[in-house]
Each structure stands twice: as structure tokens, then as C-alpha cells.
Amino acid sequence: MRDMAIEYAYNYCIDITRSHYENFPVASRLIAKQLRKPISVIYAFARTADDFVDEGDDEVDTRLEKLDKYVENLDSLNRGDKQDHPVFIALSDVIRRFQLPLKPFYDLLTAFRMDVTKKRYANFAEVMHYCSHSANPVGNLILHLYNKATKDNLARSDAICSALQLINFLQDIEQDYIESGRIYLPQDEMARFAVSEEHLRQRRADSAMLALVDMQINRILTLMNQGMPLGWTLTGRIGFELRMTIYGGLRILYRLHQQRQDVFARPRLTGRDWCWMAWMAVQAHPQPFTLQKQGCLR
User: Residues 192-210: pLDDT tens digits?
Assistant: First the structure.
């Protein structure tokens, strides 16, 4: 009976994974077969919690109560109590089998709570604090699944994950503002470049807005280059998957830099982009990325 419950729980998580579109495939064929289910479970945990934040018409208090329930479920799981929610039945099994730390899961819930309660970020340090809870835990957990969670690997993973989160912020400036009322551009930097919320409301891509975006792009590029060696430290399919993810993020960053007339447009990767990503990912050594035009980027 217990085996049937666990099998149902895993299938429940896999169905959630398959039903959501992401820029990069979750638990794809590049991932080792034995890790596809665990990664789907981690994704299902994050996806369902994220849906508490942005889906439906719930009031703020209701959204926070749902997140608090997930915190209680984690506390219960940590005590070794029997779970009755399929996500937590599967998650309990994954944590036990792979000896995963619980902190990254709590960190993700902290980030989701911030999504409900915090709409503005005073400075870049606050934005990075958010990234340390919203994005970095995912890389942390993947490294633990592969038994590669060394100090250096975790630091590089944090740089990559934070960079990817910041890229998402840049490509979703308008969507975050219009749909959720959120601005992830640091308020002090907006003031420094004389960029106001009117720029976002009116989609105003003037020289001030372009200068602010360029600053964000260059900072993200530095972060990504710091973390890039991890893609070559990790071998096999996980290394290739990570390199594809790194170069996918860099490709989007380059497209954002190209959009001088409309910094609010969301770039879409084409077949040509994916070919470039694959070509870069099979190189023998990491190549620091710049925004200067190169033949392979045109």
C-alpha cells in the first residue's frame, strides 16, 4: 500500500512538471534517468508553492496561509511524521534517499512569501537577497542530488542561478509590473538614472532606461562569467545540461542588449539560437562571454 502511495505521489509530481512550460526543459533527457523523478518532485514543490502566490483570486492573507501550510508540512516532514499530500509524500522519499538538506526548501518558501508581501527593492543587495532564496536553492539541491555540493561548486552555482534570476527580471520588466505590481530594478539605481515608474507604465525606452538596463546586463554578465567554470567542472550529461542553461541565459542576455528600440520586449530563442548554444556547450573549455558582436552571435 505504501509503495502504491509513493508511486502515485511521484506520478502526481511528474504530471505537474509536464503540464508547465519553462524556458529550459525540467528533468529532460539530458538528466541522468535516476534523477528525473527526484528533480520533478523538487519542481512540483516549487511550482505548487509559486501558484499560491500568483494564481487565482485569493486575498493576500489566504496566499500567505497556504504558504504557511507548506512550511508546516516541511516541519512535519523534518520530524519524520507521515505525509498525506502527494507532493510531500514524494518529497519525503527524495529527501531520505538523497540526504537532501531542508534549508533550500524553506528558502524557496521565504522567496514566495516575499513575492506576496514585497513589491519594491531598495537596492541591489535586497535583490540579491531575494535571489539567494528564489533561485540559488535550486542549484544547491541539484548539486546535492549529484553528490557534487562542494564549497566551490555551490558558490559558482549561486552565481549562475542568481544571474539567471536577474535575466528573468530583465525580460519580464513589463509583465512583472503590469500583472503583479512588482519592480525588481533597484529603486536607488532607478533614481540615479532618472528612471521612474512612468517608464514602465508607458514602455518608455529612452536613453535613461537604456542606460539603466545596460548596467543590469553588464552586472549579470559578470556574475555568469564567475559561475561559468562549473559547467566544465561537472562532467557528463549534467555538465552539458548546465552549459546549455548557461549559454541559454547568455543568449537571452545578448538579445536583451540588442533590443535598443524596445527593452520591454521579451526575447524568444530561435532554432539558430539553440544551435549556437549547443555549439558553445560542446567546447572543451569555458569561453568568457562578452557583448561585443562576434560571428557566431550575428
Answer: 999 999 999 999 999 999 9
Q: Within 13 Å and on the Cβ side, how many CA atoms surround 196?
A: 2
Q: Where in the chain is the domain with CATH 1.10.600.10?
A: 1-101, 118-289
pTM of the predicted protein model: 0.89
CATH number of 118-289: 1.10.600.10
Write the CA distances from 159 to 59, 66, 147, integer angstroms. Answer: 34, 30, 19
- Fold classification of 1-101 (topology level): Farnesyl Diphosphate Synthase (1.10.600)
In degrees rounded to 5, what are phi and psi of residue 183? -130, 120
- For residue range 102-121, what is the model confidence (pLDDT) as tens digits? 999 999 999 999 999 999 99
Distance between CA atoms of residues 268 and 167, nearest Å: 13
In sequence order, the 6+-apart residues with CB closer than 8 A to the CB of 180 are 54, 115, 119
Q: Tell me which amino acid residue 270 is.
A: T
